[in-house]
Specification:
The protein has 983 residues and is α+β, with helices and mostly antiparallel strands. It is built from 31 helices and 31 strands. The strands form 9 sheets. Strands 1, 2, 4, 5, 8, 11, 13, 14 and 15 form a 9-stranded mixed beta sheet that branches. A 5-stranded mixed beta sheet has the order 17-18-19-21-20. Strands 29-25-24-31 form a 4-stranded mixed beta sheet. The protein binds zinc ion. Its cofactor is Zn(2+).
Length: 983
Amino acid sequence: MLIKIALLFISVGSAAAALKNPRKLYRENDDESLLPSLYTDPIDGIDYRLPNNTIPRHYDIWLSTDIHEGEFDFEGIATIQIEALEDTQEITLQIRELTILNVKLMRSTGGSIQSNVPFRIRDDVEFLIITPSQQLIKETIYLVEIKYIGTLRDDDAGFYRSSYIDETGNVKWLATTQFESTDARHAFPCYDEPGIRSSFSISIRHDVSYTAISNGPQESRVPDGGNYVVTTFKTIPSVQSYLIAFIVSDFAYIENNDGSVPHRIFAKSESIKAGDADLALTASVYLLEKFEEYVNISYSLDKMDQAAMPDFAAGAMENWGLVTYREPYLLFNEITGRARDRENVIATISHEFAHQWFGNLVSPAWWSYLWLNEGFATLYENHLTHLAYPNERWIDTFLVETVQPVLEVDANPNIRPMTYYVENPIRIDFLFDSVAYSKSGSVLKMFQYAFGEETWRKGLNYYLIARAYNNGAPEHLHENLQRAVNEDNLGSDINVDVIMSSWETQSGFPYITVVRNDNELTFSQSRFMYTNQDSENLWWVPINYVVASNPDFSNTKPDFWLEGTQQNVSLRGFSIPKPFTNNDWIIVNIQQTGYYRVLYDRTLWDLILQELHPYGNGYEKIHLFNRAQLIDDSFHFARAELLDYDVFLGVMRYMEKETDYIPWASANRANNLMSRWLSGSSAYPRYQSFMRNLVEKVYNKYGVNIIDGEQRVDRYVRAIAINLACQAQLPSCLTDTANLLENVLREDSIMAPDLVAPIYCNGMRLRTNLSARFIFMLSRLSNSNSPSERNSIITGLGCTENPETLTNILLWALDPNNDNLSVTERSRLLLSPINMGEESIQVLISILASQREELIQFNLLTTLCSNIAARIHSERSNTLFMSQLIDLQFIGALSMSQVNNYMNNALTILNWQENKLKSIDEFFDLVELQATTTTELETTPTTTEQITPTTTTEQTTTTDSGAMNMVLGGIVLKFAILISFLL
Ligand SMILES: [Zn+2]
């Protein structure tokens, strides 16, 4: 399954959401508070596992639904062929929220043994225990027929209901399924474990005006009295219960006429008519063929259906032959869609198609090995897309959007390992975390490169063939990769099981310290964590490196393995794989294909910094991915107090020449934290000036206009450049974005979709003529029904850097008489300025003081306090915040423990500043000194001087805020009129 939940505006306090949303949060949320799935006690004392004394050989499922009438009750008959594995008195299956009407036991030939078999239900473990009067005999096949009723759920799980409003304004209901991980038992009694496979035949009785689809192709559709028909599907051979799916709906579809496999894309008819499924269809035909070619095994089923669901809990689900999606992950509109939206569709289809082999053809023996599904799907979500669209740099973005972000999460001392045993269904759901997806994908990528693509591919092919229509465990993967490694003579010392297990069964990942003494190179490994804790973990680490005098970054095979029994290894003389001189820098982990960080001794860092120095041209000698690695590693080593910030800032200096997305993505993530920590401090203006200098070239290259035919990554780097340049107060950025925003709003035209987020926000920063843009923004908000546009406007409003305007916006957000915002939008608007720096935080603290009643009324008080606490950047803010907290405790709005928590959190950034500011200031002293000595002849005024003079700004502010108050009143009134008119 591809887990994606709706993007949270602010992720602080959203631990549960972060757990379920690895990929999405990394991309669109920079908060360091992403919480991984932590070690929990895996066993709660209850045995949830099936007893394994009987197993299913075949299911015949018959279901009847009246969903076309909005009727939610359904009926079912499950006839299950079972085999007794031992002599037993009981048959145990799993059910959830079903009412069993009758159980019948028959011989395999159909003759009745007992027509009304007693049964009992154990709610704690969701067991249906059937107790026939006669003992079942070992190795004998029986038929168990279970009649039952149930209700379509409303929580997007099991057999559930969904609805949408059609073009004529009518509500249309549909019935659909989402079974992974343990909800198949809600649609029919079954052996609901991933390692248990069986064939399935499915029939559904439904209204003639609706269509039923399922995993297999339709076999027949026959009248069944009145307006009913029964649709029967071709039997699916050997599948686990969670991959079964069916949909009863009035959806329309499009289909292909080419390709070896028939593809259909189902969606609401208006989406089909608008052409929103066209991209998915074209991409699907192409991607499935590419993956068949890659694994050299044909797709198993006769057809591939995909459906876009109006209500869907995850991002998508790989049900065999019937993949289901949340609408935005399958549908794409050429006019309104962003590059990211297109990417989400293509990457999600790739992910789900990879599952058709990894997960479906071979299922995980138990949920402990969920990474065998999700790790491969994450890897191929990019790699398969790269094979299909080789010019779109899918492999490149994997590094900065998957590997580097998960290294951050995986540094948590309480993180779980990839292989992790749990039984309780709730805990099983929590395994769908960033370890199962991003970490496992990154670790698998490391082995793909360490063993080499050809060997890797061959090994995967052996694995899939050996375990086809069966379940798989890591040992099966290891054994088949070993076969390929041996055949390709990669070295007798390569024990795949030992090597890979060290990554699968241990938590976290290593950092490699590299020390050079004359002719000796020492590599040592330790677990990387932000806190200073002991760890015994050691890994088998593929090490390779490049030296300055021979800068060949193309071969990613290991030069040697740092063994899982070695804390360190010293190489000298002939044992050194690549010789070097004392003037050579060394870069370890070529193209950062290894899942680890690299910490150099100071001499080596200095040589690297020399090469990267902006006054030289050496940076291009170092591979693009390793430039991104140097930024990411140096920043996180500084964060972990293993390196000084001056090294990180020194690496960053070369960015003034960099215009590629990959290093900028790493730099952007680091900046998100750096700017937050420095905001409000004495060093912040110097940091802004430093960033302004770094971002100027890339900003000038990309500007604020989309260029026809450019790559998706060009659009991503443009958005970063705009955000960073405007944050750093680059005057051209402030005016360009403000002008573009004003023009688009004034002319009531459409902003290019990729520019909406960066321009709606940054276009609000410039204080000059702010009121015009503000009025237009509110007017557009009042006219917009599009949730995504409304969100962009709301976020944009919070980007204003004028405290008085911001105050007015927030008062409007909390005005109880303002019914133009939904509850969620009110909260979004309130928190929209949270990452905008010191001044905005002070405005939020003043709102805490003046709008207590409203904050309590809308249940926003604790959310606001915890968000402010995480962003206290100055002593002044801290004093103001503390005094509010004491008052709030005094009036009983906050408890003592809440207040203590907030007060402690509020010290985090201040403590950091106290420890780090001195060395950061020294770094800026040096940079400024160098700048003065080398740019004496330049006559361009400094960028700070180009900013509108303060006095003018203040005058504008005053005028603006008066106008805005009137506007706000007017808009409220306008919304009220609009609403009363509609009613
Ligand atoms: Zn998946």
